[in-house]
Design a protein that fits this description.
The chain has about 475 residues and is of the alpha/beta class. It folds into two domains: about 1-145 and about 335-395, FAD/NAD(P)-binding domain, CATH 3.50.50.60; about 150-325, FAD/NAD(P)-binding domain, CATH 3.50.50. It has twelve helices and 20 strands. Helix 5 (about 230-245) runs antiparallel to helix 6.
């Protein structure tokens, strides 16, 4: 039998952050159970050319830096902080486990194991041997997001028997010998795949891209860490608050966001209706705009050697095309639930745009607050996004959380000092602050209360389901 204070189901970014903070903030014993053979969660199944959407400063666990804090000098991310590869992220989490968690003597790790909630057992995937698990405090279930990636995803459309359909995981291995590529899916994976093809020598006219819906994309220019980009990041945040404060409709809000360069779109003649918090640089957008054969007829229904059947039409196809399935959604767009319940924690995003810092914050609150009701007030989930209108409740609950945490002085200190917070320091001194910084701060302070009120009006009553 295993006995532990905290059982963490999953050793992805969420589970690793929970363990990292609990190690520092408590004297608890921790047991981590994961069906993968190595830490990192879905990064174990990621396609080989995947990169993190955000700078490495904002990812990983608080106790260990990810990456070298470098500025990219080449490629479509040129001029911005590095985006670590999937291989780098996987190696990072492996090092955290082997060099910090296990040597602590307070973390036990069971890779290639499944946890049975009803039986309270951990079962080895290879042998089937089971051990009972007794949890003294809480189970931290990181599977709430139900993360899916192309390798483990089953397409929702029919595929003719002899058609060549691969995931992005297989693309580098099988692309040679094909002269036509059809990328199925308009989300971030589809974008990554198109960029990879173009950067590896494919001509734009060799690529057909099926985009069921266009997406709004966060401009990476406003998400940069460090002193050099502080005013761009703060200015972008101020502009988002102003869009939320003064937009008359959802369409008006996004027009404001685009005009202030907070949001980008690939095809300027089409208004996107999808938003999943994906981040891209203008350089990546410029690369993607080279592709002219873009099919916007809804989702694929069936792939045949000579045709593609879609929701809103049919197009001819070449039997020799290589199809790449990029339709996995990453996260389920499900209703939020309380993070803290008796005997259980369901980590979710509680700080807009940061899965890692959200998980770290949840673990800190678990360690330093006693009452689950108070914990849930401090850590109200920020809803996940799918539609453009989902941006409104995302910002509303983000602001609500900021207001609720404002009175928590020690928690505020911990957040400011946490490396995952990532932003720089303003110019000037304490006695003589930089005027440009003060202007941006005033914009934020003026817009925040107006944003909360206007978002509530636009959404109706923002109750949780």
């Amino acid at each position: 039998m295993y006995e532990t204070d905290y059982l963490i189901i999953g050793s992805g970014a969420v589970g690793m952050n929970c363990a990292d903070v609990l190690l520092d903030e408590t004297d608890a014993d921790i047991l981590i159970v994961d069906r993968h053979a190595a830490p990192g969660g879905h990064w174990n199944d990621a396609y080989p050319f995947v990169r993190l959407h955000q700078p490495s400063v904002f990812y990983g666990v608080p106790s260990r830096v990810l990456g070298g804090n470098r500025i990219d000098q080449t490629g479509p991310n040129r001029g911005y902080y590095e985006l670590p590869s999937g291989t780098e992220v996987s190696a990072y989490f492996e090092a955290v486990m082997r060099e910090r968690f296990l040597p602590s003597g307070r973390v036990r790790y069971l890779p290639m194991h499944e946890f049975d909630d009803e039986q309270s057992t951990a079962t080895a995937v290879l042998s089937g041997a089971s051990q009972d698990v007794k949890v003294r405090r809480k189970i931290i279930d990181t599977t709430f997001f139900n993360t899916t990636v192309p390798l483990t995803h089953t397409p929702a459309y029919a595929v003719a028997k002899d058609l060549k359909l691969v995931t992005p995981n297989d693309l580098p291995r099988v692309a040679t010998g094909h002269t036509r590529f059809t990328v199925v899916g308009g989300g971030k994976t589809g974008m990554d795949t198109c960029v990879w093809l173009l950067e590896n020598g494919a001509d734009a006219d060799q690529i057909r891209w099926i985009v069921p819906r266009d997406s709004w994309l966060i401009n990476r220019a406003i998400t940069q860490p460090g002193d050099a980009y502080l005013y761009d990041s703060l200015g972008g945040y101020a502009s988002m608050l102003e869009a939320a404060a003064f937009g008359e409709t959802v369409e008006d809000v996004f027009a404001w966001l685009e005009a202030s360069k907070c949001m980008l779109r690939i095809e300027t003649s089409i208004r996107p209706t999808m938003f999943r918090n994906a981040t891209m640089s203008q350089g990546e957008i410029d690369v993607l705009r080279k592709i002219k054969d873009v099919i916007r007829l809804g989702r694929v229904q069936r792939l045949e050697p000579d045709r593609i059947e879609l929701e809103n039409g049919l197009v001819s196809a070449d039997p020799g095309d290589l199809y790449i399935d990029c339709t996995a959604k990453a996260f389920d767009a499900r209703a939020s639930a309380p993070v803290f319940t008796p005997g259980r924690i369901f980590p979710q995003v509680v700080l807009n745009g940061s899965v890692c810092l959200s998980a770290a914050l949840i673990a800190y609150v678990e360690a330093n607050y006693a009452d689950d009701q108070e914990k849930n007030e401090i850590c109200a989930p920020v809803p996940l996004m799918n539609e453009d209108a989902d941006w409104l409740p995302m910002i509303y609950w983000h602001l609500r959380n900021v207001d609720r945490r404002a009175s928590e002085k020690e928690l505020g200190r911990w957040l400011r000092q946490n490396r995952l917070t990532g932003f720089g320091s303003p110019k000037g001194t304490k006695d003589a602050p930089d005027p440009d910084y003060l202007k941006i701060v005033k914009r934020m302070r003026d817009a925040a209360p107006l944003a909360s009120a206007n978002l509530k009006r636009l959404m109706g009553t923002p109750e949780r389901s």
